[in-house]
Design goal:
Elements lengths: L1 H23 L4 E6 L6 E6 L9 E6 L10 E3 L6 E6 L4 H7 L4 E8 L7 E9 L12 E3 L10 E3 L7 E9 L3 H13 L20 E2 L2 E3 L9 E4 L10 E11 L5 E9 L8 E3 L3 E5 L4 E2 L3 E3 L8 E5 L5 E3 L4 E4 L3 E9 L5 E9 L35 H27 L1
Parallel strand pairs: 8-15, 17-24
Antiparallel strand pairs: 1-2, 2-5, 3-4, 3-6, 6-7, 9-13, 10-11, 10-14, 12-13, 14-15, 16-19, 18-22, 20-23, 21-22, 23-24
Length: 409
């Protein structure tokens, strides 16, 4: 019995030790800034309790249970915050980033007698954002990728990975619209990172046309090209998905956006019929005329000035509610173009009846199974039949008489 108690106590103690780091880090919050496409990133910790008169060190490990082997001086901190720079040019940091997508940071107070840990194995995200894997965020379709135009991949090279790619057309209108906005404003395309798909393709990868770099010591500074001339299947905005299959390092996925968008054709005006009528109980769908007809943006919104008379949906379908008139307005997406149609709702027209009024005389009613007029005959008429019979009898009498006359002779 005592042995069982000891075992239970040991298990509880182990669980307590596992929970202690999470309890001690409960109020700590972490934000990340990936500031370079070589995988270097800074982590800002808030909710700490630090003594400005003390000195601190930190370390990065692959697992929460691992002991920190190399400690680094913490130089950027206040009483409640600390900023830690994890640069991939530092060997032990690079080894962790190349191995796992989630690492653990520990901070210790080296001024205290026992080197007290003020932050124990705090999890941090080490996954490199898709648009930070290479030196490109966007490439124009048709670009020649020879020479200086080659794609640079700081954390991978041919000595530690095989490079693959594939194209996927982007259909997300929000992503495309934001891309166009940033392009027009000459902004930072890294802002698109949060709008990108999270799930990368699982198959149909193609090996790069050229892939090189042989820094076996750091495993960095790879370069090459997916194609000599970038060529997507058709018009539009594309993902160029990148996949680096690791040799003794983790797999890395990234992407470059390929721009094959055609110039936009501005919308000059939109129009509707001036007036329309619709009966109660029926529906009416209005069609917009765009000028020019091949304008790029044909997205419009609809509204009714009096929804008690008639409502209109996003497809221009009008549903009458009561007799009266309402003005239907269609508006271009940017709000600069409008058109109007006055729709009048009328009472439902009474349809004429095909039935004759009843006279009360049942003799007027005809059997629906009896044909009107003369019934068509399918054989010889009655008169013709009788005539034929009489003719045949007359001929027979003449024939008999002639026979008798010959016998007398």
């Amino acid at each position: 019995m005592k042995k069982a108690k000891y075992i239970i106590m040991i298990i509880l103690l182990g669980l307590l030790l596992l929970l202690l780091p999470n309890i001690s880090n409960a109020d700590v919050e972490v934000t990340r800034n990936v500031y370079s496409n070589n995988g270097s990133m800074k982590f800002n910790f808030t909710g700490l309790t630090l003594d400005m008169d003390h000195e601190y060190e930190f370390g990065l490990t692959k697992t929460a249970a691992a002991e920190v082997e190399t400690w680094h001086s913490l130089t950027d901190y206040s009483a409640t915050e600390a900023t830690i720079d994890i640069s991939t040019t530092t060997k032990d940091f690079r080894e962790v980033i190349n191995a796992v997508d989630k690492g653990y940071i520990t901070i210790k107070d080296i001024t205290s007698e026992e080197n007290e840990k003020v932050l124990t194995a705090q999890p941090v995200d080490l996954k490199i954002p898709f648009l930070k894997v290479t030196n490109y965020t966007v490439i124009s379709n048709g670009k020649n990728m020879d020479g200086e135009a080659e794609i640079k991949v700081p954390l991978r090279c041919v000595s530690n990975s095989t490079a693959y790619y594939q194209y996927e057309k982007i259909t997300d209108e929000n992503l495309i619209a934001k891309y166009k906005e940033i392009k027009e404003e000459k902004g930072d395309f890294n802002e698109l990172e949060t709008l990108l798909k999270k799930d990368v393709p699982s198959s149909n990868w193609t090996v790069w046309n050229y892939w090189n770099g042989y820094d076996s010591f750091t495993g960095m500074n790879g370069y090459g090209r997916t194609q000599r001339i970038i060529s997507v299947p058709e018009d539009g905005l594309y993902y160029m998905w990148l996949f680096f299959s690791g040799k003794d390092v983790k797999n890395i996925y990234g992407c470059i956006l390929v721009d094959n968008l055609q110039p936009e054709i501005a919308l000059d005006s939109i129009s509707l019929p001036q007036t329309k009528e619709v009966e109660l109980g029926e529906t009416l769908t209005l069609s917009v005329t765009f000028n020019p007809s091949n304008a790029t943006n044909k997205i419009v919104t609809w509204s009714s000035s009096d929804e008690t008379v008639a409502t209109v949906d996003n497809a221009g379908k009008i549903t009458p509610k009561k007799v009266g008139s309402t003005i239907i307005t269609v508006t271009s997406q940017d709000g600069s173009k409008k058109a109007y149609c006055t729709v009048t709702v009328t009472e439902k027209t009474n349809e004429p009846s095909n039935e004759k009024p009843s006279t009360g005389d049942t003799n007027d009613e005809k059997d629906p199974t009896t044909a009107n007029g003369q019934i068509p005959q399918t054989g010889v008429s009655m008169v013709a039949g009788i005539s034929i019979v009489i003719t045949l009898i007359a001929l027979a009498i003449i024939y008999i008489k002639n026979r008798k006359y010959k016998d007398i002779k």
